[in-house]
Amino acid sequence: MLTFAKKKTVAKIGDIDVGNFPLLLAPMEDVSDPPFRALCKEQGADVVYTEFISSEGLIRDAAKSVIKLDIYEKERPVGIQIFGANLDSMLRSVEIVEKTKPDIIDINFGCPVKKVVSKGAGAGILKDIDLMVSLTEAMVKHTNLPITVKTRLGWDHDSIKIVEVAERLQDVGCKAISIHGRTRAQMYKGNADWNPIAEVKNNPRMHIPVFGNGDVNTPERAVEMRDKFGLDGAMIGRASIGYPWFFREVKHFFETGEHLPPPTMQERIEVARRHLQMAIDWKGEKLGVFETRRHYTNYFKGIPDFKPFRTKMVTCDDPADVFATFDEVEQLFGDYQFENAL
Ligand SMILES: Cc1cc2nc3c(=O)[nH]c(=O)nc-3n(C[C@H](O)[C@H](O)[C@H](O)COP(=O)(O)O)c2cc1C
């Protein structure tokens, strides 16, 4: 295992200063929407990414894809992530994405799902590194916005060439790379291996930020990624779902070496209310109610005998009923003391 001295360098994505060891909210389908990104930003995320957006959908003006381009001013810097394998579609979608004025355009070269991979997109492109590099180069040349890449270690265990791949992407103008420490073959199984990511960082020719991703689920793990693996920042996915406070907890731990107490019940309810309201304002009542549901389990995790309330939150269709459930929970459990979640 490679070890690195603790260092303090400010990471830059193109001209954007993202601070010393930034925390990035990972792109997550149906999760990393504007309301959730805004909440993570409030809690300390330094850079946030949209979920992946289909280039083919964008160029057909498919409403489902276009709505994913919405961004709030307050969440900047924000990266819009797109995926595809067709050069023309990717370039045309860069033009569409540019109009919505994100700070960064990220290319998804890591999605492992069959319907994406079978078209040569997402992690599918890991089978054709030349195409991965030429697509990136063409996109870099087509925009003034910084292009970043998110990818995996390789297609499978026997074809890990991430050190060479990262260097080639850097050489064609990619401004930062986020690497999920699993192969496509692994999907989400096993543990993420950060050693190959450290090798990328340890390549003396690398000068763009190398962000680590996969299984950063405690502040200690984030410290490990920074100090033991020497990476430039941590991209955080699942640990933040229904728990945007993870970002501030990691930052507090960085600063003090101590765990911040978990958010109080009052704070959780206040955030749940705002989350729902932002989602309704953004997508309307029906979708707003529906898409916030996945977060409630974690917002209120650990409270004994909570099941009937959670069930109400995730089954009520009328926002008034969900808000009423929050009120009820506040009255009944307002004094509940959460144990350290992490
Ligand atoms: C629900 C869900 C949706 C995801 N959607 C995307 C996506 O749209 N784009 C992408 O690059 N990765 C996506 N990922 C992968 C994550 O960005 C991240 O690489 C992975 O979850 C590992 O990080 P973690 O252990 O911190 O969760 C998704 C992951 C999850 C759990």
TrEMBL record:
Residues 24-326 form the DUS-like FMN-binding domain. Keywords: Flavoprotein, FMN, NADP, Oxidoreductase, RNA-binding, tRNA processing, tRNA-binding. It is an enzyme of class 1 (oxidoreductase). It catalyses: a 5,6-dihydrouridine in tRNA + NADP(+) = a uridine in tRNA + NADPH + H(+); a 5,6-dihydrouridine in tRNA + NAD(+) = a uridine in tRNA + NADH + H(+). The keyword Hydrolase does not apply. InterPro entries: Aldolase_TIM, DUS-like_FMN-bd, DUS_fam, DusB-like, tRNA-dHydroUridine_Synthase_C, tRNA_hU_synthase_CS. The keyword RNA-binding applies. Its EC number is 1.3.1.-. CDD domains: DUS_like_FMN. Its cofactor is FMN. It comes from the Bacteria. Transmembrane segments: none annotated. NCBIfam families: nifR3_yhdG (TIGR00737). Belongs to the dus family. Catalyzes the synthesis of 5,6-dihydrouridine (D), a modified base found in the D-loop of most tRNAs, via the reduction of the C5-C6 double bond in target uridines. This is tRNA-dihydrouridine synthase. It comes from Psychroflexus planctonicus.
